[in-house]
Amino acid sequence: MPRQSAVTLFGEWARLGKDEGMESGHSPSVEQMIDSVINRVPEKFSAIDVGCGNGWAARRLARLPGCYRSSGVDGSEQMVRKARSIDPGGDYFVGNLPGWRPEENVDLILSMEFIYYLDEPLQFFGTLHDDWLSSGGSVVFGLDHYLENESSIYWPDSLGVPMATLSMGEWRDGLESAGFRDVEALQVCPREDWSGTLVLIGTKA
Ligand SMILES: C[S@@+](CC[C@H](N)C(=O)[O-])C[C@H]1O[C@@H](n2cnc3c(N)ncnc32)[C@H](O)[C@@H]1O
């Protein structure tokens, strides 16, 4: 299958309405991601969803008690157009990562099923730690594609999109090497023949 960029692929998915399937499919894991990280965020906090698709998780974060600002960034104009049509008052940005960065630092970064589309995802951990997060801020990532989740290993070929295929240990070490403290890696929502979403959490000192 010819190779294309993830942004091109997901722009087409937005056009076809497949963003809604991602929302319903990813939602149970994102609920658990939020539960796992919420005790690390300050009483009043700002949040951003990185690789936000149609922005559903940014809107979920906005509904959390204490969240005074929630935004989303995605490289696909079609996805961001969709986010804005659902939530005209929301803060959604078209941004090609890793180059884009928010105007203000944030307290919580959430990212579901995005990070492995980057050429250098572990390097991006360092950017998030050094340049995006406020002191004491936290990150929570959800990944369905990782080495131990054997059912996901064929995705780069079947989607025709480059993906970084790393082990749970490599992801975890990457967060620690980027400077994150209290790093945790857990698997949520496993099923038969599915190892579950790998959830990675870390906090900036
Ligand atoms: C699998 S989708 C997940 C979307 C959303 N997080 C969700 O769970 O529904 C991955 C998203 O990452 C975005 N993306 C991929 N590579 C990107 C890049 N280099 N810069 C910005 N966005 C990117 C795609 O456009 C797509 O919307």
Strand content: 15-25%
Tell me the quaternary state.
single chain
Largest sheet: 7 strands, mixed
Number of helices: 7
Give, in spatial order, the strands making up the sheet with the most strands: 3-2-1-4-5-7-6
| Run of helices and strands | HHEHEHEEHEHHEE
CATH class placement: Alpha Beta
Ligands: S-adenosylmethionine
Q: How far apart lie the N and C ends?
A: 44 Å
Helical content band? 25-40%
Low-pLDDT stretches: none
Number of domains: 1
Secondary structure: number of strands: 7
CATH architecture heading: 3-Layer(aba) Sandwich
The Rg value, from CA coordinates, equals: 16 Å
Estimate the mean pLDDT confidence.
Answer: 97
CATH superfamily: Vaccinia Virus protein VP39
Protein structure class: alpha/beta
Which fold name is given in CATH as the topology? Rossmann fold
Assign an overall shape: globular
What tags apply to this protein structure?
205 residues; alpha/beta; Rossmann fold; binds S-adenosylmethionine
Could you characterize the architecture of this molecule?
By secondary structure, the protein is α/β, with parallel strands linked by helices. It has a single domain (6-203), classed as Vaccinia Virus protein VP39 (Rossmann fold), CATH 3.40.50.150. Helices cover 36% and strands 25% of the residues. The protein has seven helices and seven strands, in the order H-H-E-H-E-H-E-E-H-E-H-H-E-E. The chain has helices spanning 6-16, 19-37, 56-62, 77-86, 121-132, 155-159, 168-177, and strands at residues 45-50, 67-74, 91-94, 106-112, 133-143, 181-188, 197-203. A seven-stranded mixed β-sheet has the order 3-2-1-4-5-7-6, with helices on both faces. Helix 4 (77-86) links the parallel strand 2 (67-74) and strand 3. Helix 1 (6-16) crosses helix 4 and helix 5 (121-132) packs parallel to helix 7. It starts with 5 loop residues before the first helix and ends with a strand. The mean pLDDT is 97. The chain binds S-adenosylmethionine. S-adenosylmethionine (SAM) binds at residues 6-7, 10, 22-23, 26, 51-53, 74-76, 79, 96-97, 112-114, 117-118.
